[in-house]
Amino acid sequence: MSDMNQQMTARYKNNFLKEIEQQAEMGEWVKMCMQCGVCSGSCPTNFHPGWQHPPQEIFMLIRAGKRDEVLDSPSMWMCTSCYNCYVRCPRKLPITHIMHGIAEYAYRMGRAPKGQPTLHLSKTFWNNCTKTGRTNEVQLTQTLYFKDGIVSGIKKALAMQDVAIGLVKAGRLNIMEALGGGHKCKGAKGIHAMLAKARELENQRKGRAA
Amino acid sequence: MTSVVATNQTILVVGGGIAGMTAALEAAETGKEVVLVEKNPYLGGRTVQLYRYFPKMCHPACGLEINLRRLKANPRIQVLTMAEVTGIAGDKGNYSVTVKLAPRFVNESCTACGECNKAASTEILDAFNYNLGKVKAAYLPSDMAYPQRYVIDPSVVGSAEGQAIKAACKYGAVDLDMKEEVVTLNAGAIVWATGWQPYDAEKITPYRYGEFKNVITNVEFERLADPHGPTGGKLLRPSDGKEAKNVAFIQCAGSRDENHLRHCSRFCCMASLKQTRYVQEAFGDAGKSTVYYIDIRAIDRFEDFYQEVKANPNVAFVKSKVARISEDKNGDPRLWGVNTEGYIRYSEPYDLVVLAVGMEPSVKNVAIPAEVLGDSSGFVMADPANAGIFGAGCATNALDVNRAVQSATAAALRAVQVVNQVARAEA
Predict the structure, then answer these.
(1) Do B10-101+180-195+362-426 and B199-359 have matching folds?
(2) Which of A34, A41, A57 shows the shortest C-beta gap to B323?
(3) Does domain B10-101+180-195+362-426 have CATH number 3.50.50.60?
(4) N or C end: fewer C-beta atoms under 10 angstroms in chain A?
(5) A54 vs B337: CB contact, 8 Å cut-off?
(6) Residues 11..70 of A with a Cβ closer than 8 Å to B: which?
(7) Helix/strand number for chain A, H first, E second
(8) B161-212: pLDDT as tens digits
(9) Model-level pTM?
(10) Are B209 and B250 in contact (CB under 8 A)?
(11) β-strands B77-80, B33-37 pairing
(12) What is the complex's ipTM, to 2 decimals?
């Protein structure tokens, strides 16, 4: 991943705005921001300690070429996707999607903060669900609960047991899936091929080495 | 029946605000015949509803008085009030226009003595004061209304109260049998000066206008400051009548917003800067104003005015588009957002919040009963292919009084040229 980071640094040199525009999903919108601050004011996270930079500050940092500050920022990972900023933006910037685009790009560059919970969830979910084409709920929750060790995992599982029992009774959770296997989609191979092709096309479009 | 003398050499001016009056006067003073059509019972439009003008802080009475004197002195202008254009047919040099006249129920004999007002008991919303107060159903729209004639609201016509109002008039001016009329008139050229309306603030849902009584618009604040307004010129907030000593102004309320008005309404920054002066004048150093802005657009020569307000220690500026408004238990509106200079979150209560709402064309180009070119906000655009219909004032763009007058003079000149061509062809 850091190879790609070097590749991109060499290609875009000091033009970080252009890099974001061409490489990050929805990055082409960044230049449209007029710095009114309504996105930050509308954010329900109330600038949780992890929120180093509110959205319009991230956009300004990009325009100012502050590559390291932006890619290393934990802020994009704090977005809860409530879409308040998106609906209120007077320039109709798809802010939620831009934040996700930049977060994803930072991850590809190997710059995303280590151990960030949203990143952990996203990775776990992606791996879990692309493996068979269906989510294995038991394995997914196991991985998430025991992320910080056995004791905290057991505590979390106990706290959620009523919900789990309800899901089992409703037939939405199969305990046996803990052993592996579980429900999958018929054409898992086809999904893998599709995702590989999508990656290939994206690399082609964005001029990235495979 | 109302009779209107008009030929294909007549210029029709639609809208009797500052732009329409100016266009009508300029054209008539070059010797052209003019018909001026106004929807309200009085001339002057939104300009008369202001307390003061920027930048000189003079009262609209002054500028309008001059125009009214010119108007009264000029026999070439026929004024139709309570009239609306409903159809335009024909082409440049020969339009046929249908005008709908609503009944006023008071004829020309009215001396504005006010006896009908005393006889009336029903109260209706006071449209002149943006519905902030009430007036009796026989009313004079404003002290300086022209024509100086009372209006009787249709709600009392046919009632015993209507008869009492009629009986109170010593001059036989009350005519309860007046009916709506439709007249057709000729015109060679048309000046479209239907002006603007304040953007509907209820559509900006996070600001809760209409729900929180102490969140008002800039046009309503003008009426509060005006001695002829609902509070007699005292800055009292609507919920409990408390003096509004700590006032917040929210700029770009609807303007420069793809979800509302795409354009910059241009006058609102200056209007709010002007209104901070009302607060200062009313309460001295106890009066505090805070202006929340994206950027202050004090166009061209008004920069001085901005610098002067900025130097006032009682006026604060916060660079931020307010995200939302909530209401405290005591009725104080509370503003939430982020100050982008330093990215600091705020949550501040105020006595009163004034939304600097933008300008929207009163009649969008798509609603004009003729082929007119308009921009994406519905303002009438100058169109070289356009035959004999010319936009003027705020029907063409978001303008202040000064620029509206300039635009009206330009439109009058274009209309005069069309009428001159017609005259030459017939000579």
Answers:
(1) yes
(2) A41
(3) yes
(4) C
(5) no
(6) 34-38, 40-42, 46-47, 53-54, 56-57
(7) 12, 0
(8) 999 999 999 999 999 999 999 999 999 999 999 999 999 999 999 999 999 9
(9) 0.91
(10) no
(11) parallel
(12) 0.85
